[in-house]
Write a structure and sequence with these properties.
By secondary structure, the protein is α/β, with parallel strands linked by helices. The protein has 2 domains: 167 residues, NAD(P)-binding Rossmann-like Domain (Rossmann fold, 3-Layer(aba) Sandwich), CATH 3.40.50.720; 121 residues, N-(1-d-carboxylethyl)-l-norvaline Dehydrogenase, domain 2, CATH 1.10.1040.10. The chain is built from 13 helices and 9 strands. Strand 8, helix 6 and strand 9 form a beta-alpha-beta unit. Helix 4 runs parallel beside helix 5. The longest helix is centred in the middle third of the chain and has 22 residues.
Length: 302
């Protein structure tokens, strides 16, 4: 696991709980806690405390592995990709699990096309304290070869994931899965961060819900203009999905905003606007979100 935050800590912890051989590449106080206290997951799906986990800040000390789950924040992805070469063996698969649609290209520049596959996750989880992951909703991982072939290395990864307490899918078209997540997540992150509100009050308010659905339609139109066949009825699907979430569910971007951390905004609503301009699709709701959150992109000012 390159990155042991909400995504890496949750999925890596669940895999370790199931007996998989997991090493966390982490840093700072979180790394210290993993080394001294282990990893704790607080989750409606069941709490777990792993008293001993393998964790390091040096990829050379780990060496080649079968699979790298690349789970750092998007604003750290370029720098973290430089950690990948010592982890690569002859057939290592690097699975980027970032939000947005740019992660595979970042990984490919560092690791090469042969090692890069596609991936995405649906999960709401954060570092509550060093060594502690708080999971509140969703628990799905998707991965697939970028050329859509069914590979032995990802079949093996699927076998391992199926033993863990989360849902896993070996995708036949990971590009559609990544863009479908991008459409949903850019809206979920943007609307919760812009309103400083969890999802419940948003879907309960007719005006906010209408704005949310308009944002889904904008991102869907951008995907279609890029030639990615995400579902046409995305706005209705997203409405149903978000109404089914726990009303207190927050996006990681809202969690970061509340903690004064950097935001992934340029790769979410900002990316919808950027790509929309490239393909000639208007994105007024996402432009509004990207504009009003712009002062917070770099986190709290000293």
């Amino acid at each position: 696991m390159v990155g042991a935050g909400g995504v890496g800590g949750y999925f890596g912890g669940r895999l370790a709980e199931a007996g998989a051989d997991i090493v966390f590449l982490a840093r700072g106080a979180h790394l210290d806690a993993l080394r001294t206290k282990g990893l704790r997951i607080e989750s409606p799906s069941g709490n777990v405390h792993l008293g001993r986990v393998a964790a390091s800040d040096d990829p050379a000390a780990i060496g080649p592995v079968d699979v790298v789950l690349f789970a750092v924040k998007l604003y750290d992805a370029e720098a973290a990709a430089g950690l990948l070469p010592p982890l690569l063996g002859a057939d290592t698969a690097v699975v980027p699990l970032q939000n947005g649609v740019d992660a595979a290209a970042i990984v490919q520049r560092a690791a090469g096309a042969a090692h890069t596959v596609g991936g995405t996750v649906y999960v709401s989880a954060v570092i509550a304290d060093p060594g502690v992951i708080r999971h509140t909703a969703m628990d799905s991982m998707f991965f697939g070869e970028l050329d859509r072939r069914r590979s032995a290395r990802l079949e093996r990864l699927l076998e391992v994931c199926r033993t863990a307490a989360f849902r896993s899918t070996l995708s036949d078209n990971i590009h559609v899965d990544i863009w479908t997540k991008f459409v949903r997540l850019s809206v979920f992150s943007g609307m919760t961060a812009a309103t400083r509100s969890p999802i419940g009050p948003i879907v309960a308010d007719p005006d906010l819900l209408a704005m949310l659905k308009d944002a889904v339609r904008e991102a869907t139109a951008v995907a279609h203009a890029k030639g990615v066949p995400v579902p046409e009825d995305g706005a209705d699907r997203v409405e149903q999905a978000y109404k089914a979430l726990p009303p207190q569910a927050k996006s990681s971007m809202l969690e970061d905003l509340e903690r004064g951390r950097r935001l992934e905004l340029p790769w979410l609503s900002g990316a919808v606007v950027r790509i929309g301009e490239e393909v000639g699709v208007a994105t007024p709701v996402h432009r509004f979100i990207a504009t009003i959150l712009k002062p917070h992109v770099q986190g709290s000012q000293p």
